[in-house]
Amino acid sequence: MSLTIGIDPGSRITGYGLVERRGSEIVYIGSGIIRGGSTGPIERRLLMIKRELNGVIERYRPEALAVEEIFMAKNPKSILTLGEARGVVLLAAAEADIPVFEYTPREVKSSVTGAGAAHKSQVAAMVGRLMRLDHEPETEDETDALAVAFCHAVRAALFRGRLT
Of the listed 8, 107, 142, 144, which one is catalytic? Predict the structure, then answer.
């Protein structure tokens, strides 16, 4: 068994999703969001995200953390803010001695839907089916985090030769 936490970092909302590989099956363990808030100094919002993420990590004790690589956006300020939130995630993983694995958005989409150019709605629908969710995730951030965790669970098993 291998527990993975997927993270979709953001300064306002950071999504997290936990999946566990049990043999050839990938099982949903839990998911949620961490609200950093939309007002106040960025450093206070980042601190709130780190504290909450530390709590999730302590509770579940994942063996791997998966996160999407940063893609180029049109707004440089958005990229900078995303990088700051992502830095908090990487710091939390390092402090907990959890290895970090990065995947491109195309790799994540392809792992979940079979198509690297899939739309967010297609990814969300497949995450629900693949994880056999009995609820709708609260936000896209939660869905995206589950997709990243699922991607790592699939790819890690492939690289270990556990899937045929």
Answer: 8
pLDDT tens sequence across 74-97: 788 888 888 999 999 999 999 999
- Catalytic residue list contains 134: no
**pTM score of the predicted model:** 0.91
Q: What is the pLDDT of residues 152-164, one digit of tens each?
A: 999 987 766 544 3
From 20, 52, 107, 141, the catalytic residue:
141
Residue 8 annotated in active site? yes
Q: What is the dihedral of CA 23, 113, 142, 72, to 10 degrees?
A: 120
State the CB neighbour count (10 A cutoff) for residue 59.
10
Q: Which CATH number does the domain 2-160 belong to among 3.40.50.150, 3.40.50.2300, 3.30.420.10, 3.40.50.170?
A: 3.30.420.10
